Each structure stands twice: as structure tokens, then as C-alpha cells.
């Protein structure tokens, strides 16, 4: 009887911990190439990428690279890339629509030859 109780207790213990481990939210960090030229672009890109499920965004102007930390159960890189493109910035996955790009200030017109500043 004691052996059965110990086996049952061990089973419950492992079942509980395996369920809690699988219930944890998976956090992932990825990078995405995003075109921009200035600090205004940086703010716009980081704000656009900060959609539901995103924990952290950081755009490097010199490297033209966005680093995003997000919950994989809430969002994915395709959704983040779409949000950034809708804000007017071409990226490695999506090109910004003409209407969104046209709304950018002149200093942010990266397609028109404006250099990183």
C-alpha cells in the first residue's frame, strides 16, 4: 500500500510540473531588417512594432536592424513586419504601401535618397 501511495504521489508531482512547464509563455527575440534614416524613424518603427504580445523593441539606425522580444503565443514576426510596413517603413519581410510611405516627413524619405542622419 505504501509503495502504491509513493508511486501515485510521484506521478502527481511529475504531472503537475510538466503541466506548469508547458503552460509557461514562450518568449522569443528576433531581428528584422528595417529601413529608416533618423530618430523620428526610430520612434515610429519601435512604436509600430510594439503590438500585442511584444515586450521590447529596439531599432539600430546604423545597422538598420530592429530587435524584437515577443510572446510567441500572442504574435509572430510576420505580424510585426506588417505593422512596421503599415507605418511606412520597408523591412525584410514587407514593403511599405505607397500611401503609408507618402505620409512620412521629408526627413524620413529613405526611398528618395535621404541619407542616415
Automatic annotation (TrEMBL):
Q: Which residues form the signal peptide?
A: 1-23
The molecule here is called Heavy-metal-associated domain-containing protein
- Superkingdom of the organism of origin: Bacteria
Q: Gene3D superfamilies per the record?
A: 3.30.70.100
Note whether rRNA-binding occurs among the keywords.
Answer: no
**Gene Ontology MF terms in the entry:** metal ion binding
Keywords in alphabetical order: Signal
Amino acid at each position: 500500500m505504501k509503495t502504491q501511495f509513493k508511486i501515485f504521489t510521484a506521478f502527481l508531482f511529475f504531472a503537475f510540473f510538466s503541466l506548469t512547464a508547458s503552460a509557461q509563455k514562450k518568449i522569443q527575440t528576433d531581428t528584422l531588417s528595417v529601413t529608416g534614416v533618423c530618430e523620428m524613424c526610430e520612434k515610429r518603427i519601435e512604436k509600430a512594432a510594439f503590438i500585442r504580445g511584444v515586450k521590447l523593441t529596439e531599432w539600430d539606425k546604423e545597422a538598420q536592424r530592429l530587435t524584437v522580444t515577443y510572446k510567441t503565443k500572442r504574435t509572430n514576426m510576420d505580424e510585426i513586419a506588417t505593422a512596421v510596413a503599415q507605418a511606412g517603413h520597408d523591412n525584410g519581410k514587407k514593403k511599405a504601401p505607397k500611401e503609408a510611405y507618402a505620409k512620412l516627413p521629408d526627413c524620413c524619405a529613405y526611398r528618395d535618397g535621404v541619407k542616415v542622419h
